Amino acid sequence: GDRMWHFAVSVFLVELYGNSLLLTAVYGLVVAGSVLLLGALIGDWVDKNSRLKVAQTSLVVQNVSVILCGVILMVIFLFKTQLLTLYHGWLLTMCYILVITIANIANLASTATAITIQRDWIVVVAGEDRSKLADMNATIRRIDQLTNILAPMAVGQIMTFGSPMIGCGFISCWNLMSMCVEYLLLWKVYQKTPTLALKSSKVEESELKQLNVKKESDVKPAEGVQLVVEKDAGGAEPRRDKEAGCAARIAEPFITFRDGWVAYYNQPVFLAGMGLAFLYMTVLGFDCITTGYAYTQGLSGSVLSLLMGASAVTGIMGTVAFTWLRRRCGLVRTGLVSGAAQFACLILCAISVFMPGSPLDLTVSPFADIGARLFESKPLPTIASPGEKLEMAFATGMPSLLNGSAPGDGDPELSPEPVPLISVSLLFAGVIAARVGLWSFDLTVTQLLQENVMESERGIINGVQNSMNYLLDLLHFIMVILAPNPEAFGLLVLISVSFVAMGHIMYFRFAQKTLGTQLFACCTPDPKAVSDSSPSADTSTV
Which InterPro entries does the entry link to (predicted)? Predict the structure, then answer.
């Protein structure tokens, strides 16, 4: 249900606003900004409450919000004409605002669910068996990859052969049923795993052996700043409560935000988390940006769907590679191998920028299009064909790219000349092949966070990690907004590859600090490589 909604909400907003991407862009910015600002607070709430309460509350809020959005969207689709005439259209505008607000609440609840289930419950269920934890992580990621394919297909077929209103109703009904099933399953897992009822609120030894075994505050208080959850032991929180002042209560979320980010910085796996976040600063993925660029280079929708399927297959291969590499080389070295594999594949993308068919033109300013829009120095580019290409432009969200490779820009009667496919073929070959290393690396960092962040800090640390991911993702969208013309896409590719390289350099530094001289001893099949190297990790602060 969550994957269906994530796919459908953007389509619904485009349909509502007359095939304009304005509402979709606003929704994207609101979602990214909310997680960026509230990620630490959500994680702190996860830490402060019992596991069952957090899981059930976030599950109910998420699904109820989606159901409400579906109902409101159905009403808008049914009575849009009447709503336009009431109060000069302001009532319809308020409906748009209400939909985006509730959808944002659903996304925040989904973030809380992901943190508590994928970063906390799974660690407790696995116990001290790291191999079991790795297998469970890989299985969850495979399910995620499959739902990313099947959910859009299901909703797309319903909206194609039915209508957007029928699609809203289907998603609302599906979320209602799935909420009941998921609620029951969570209760059963909680009952079968008694240790889930035990949640540490003080600095204690985690369920798994930590990367840094001397992390207790009474032993090495300088190693990191303790979180708000830990302040009960230090006495700071009772003092703040005794103040009972309005100013202190207002300042509480800001203090939590600050302490969460400081604690994230002081984690021994900080560089590994930053390395993962830097991978979000890229246009080398199957989002609307890369899809729109592919259309301008002559790829059809059917070819793109096949490429997306191939990408999902290689992503699943990455989860298989993760479990195999971890058994052979250990967890930390798996990240090194995965990162090297991903970067090697992305070299093809960098080469594609200079191959025949690439629209890269350094004589054209990357900001030419944005300058024309802001200062109206020249008319905006027009769509070459009023038929199929117009629909394509709305679907991809990049109408300004459609004439980018056409030599006859000035004459709308001329159709674009065929573009050589060598460049775009190399680009997508690199993107698809890199998914193996990408998902293996993602699973590596995920397990490092699970194993090496203490139980009482898991929520807030993973909340800040989500905020970092959204921050870099937001920066990549801003980068595209500033340079949207196709001649600049090659530069965006090179920038993306550079950020991926910087991310893996950060991870290499983390691995070097953790394993020391054993960094390249890749033949060691010890699954407890992180713990075995703790003396090296203890001597370094991240």
Answer: Ferroportin-1, MFS_trans_sf
